[in-house]
Amino acid sequence: MTGNTLSVPAVALGTWAWGDSGQPGDGYFGSRLSESGLREVVEKAQSNGLTLWDTAVAYGMGHSETVLAKALAGRDRGEYQLSTKFTPQLAGDGDDPVADMLEQSLDRLGTDYVDVFWIHNAADVERWTPPLVPLLRSGRVRHVGVSNHTREEIALADRILGAAGFRVEAVQNHFSLLYRGSERAGVLDYCREHDVRFFSYMVLEQGALTGRYDPANPLPEGSSRAAVYNGILHRLKALTDRMAAIGEDRGASAAEVATAWAVAKGTTPIIGVTKAAHVDGLVRARGIELADAEIADLEALADDADVDTRGWWEPEM
Q1: Model confidence at 192: pLDDT above 60
Q2: Structural domains in the chain plus CATH codes
Q3: CA terminus-to-terminus distance, the chain
């Protein structure tokens, strides 16, 4: 059996944008990041107890992992947790593509184990889950999670691991005020019933729910997220205005309210951080307790917006 139960901070830190090359228009977010700036992010996060870093080979084809390792360099390995992913769509054609991808990640991350290793997308659960067992036995993987899996696929992966004395300890799906597919399909209930940690990603919908953007001030042109969200910003105004009003009473931003909502739903949000100020916001969000009436209000306004932000890579839950 796995030795330790997975224990994580209230909020995890996402490094999807760290995979951007920094060239304008090149990369999902169009981010311009510096090594010193990211070390500052790490310093502030670690000192505030935000110690779980989520990355993936798919984020810039390993670039995010490499950049993250540089930013964490010099720290004791026990001070932070690393979460990375096996993406079936990127699998090599060797005898053991899962182990191969993990080894490459460990090399880029400069470590001999990862705290959480995810099957990134549910391509073929019966094929891709069994190779995790020897990795768990060897200690190179401490805990297993599945991402973008339906309730049935999560249960199947858990049965496969269970036969070897292990289990699925975490689920990572897109979950936000605008996209609650995992709640409606019973995935959150499943996680509660089976003591599985649910990690919510795209909680801020790549910036569209921060309140910083509107039709007059759209997301950065040339970035992939601009193409997805700029056309629906006008439908989000009532929701982001309400989030801002709730935040104002607490000295918090709309983005921090969206994060606090994800925590209130019993999930661990993975929030992308590229600036030290983002960490300050997460510390504030961690301390916000939303009333049931506020949660219901936000969800009603989100439903009224009537948008579908499911990613092209995501299954119908």
Answers
A1: yes
A2: 12-207+266-288 (3.20.20.100)
A3: 29
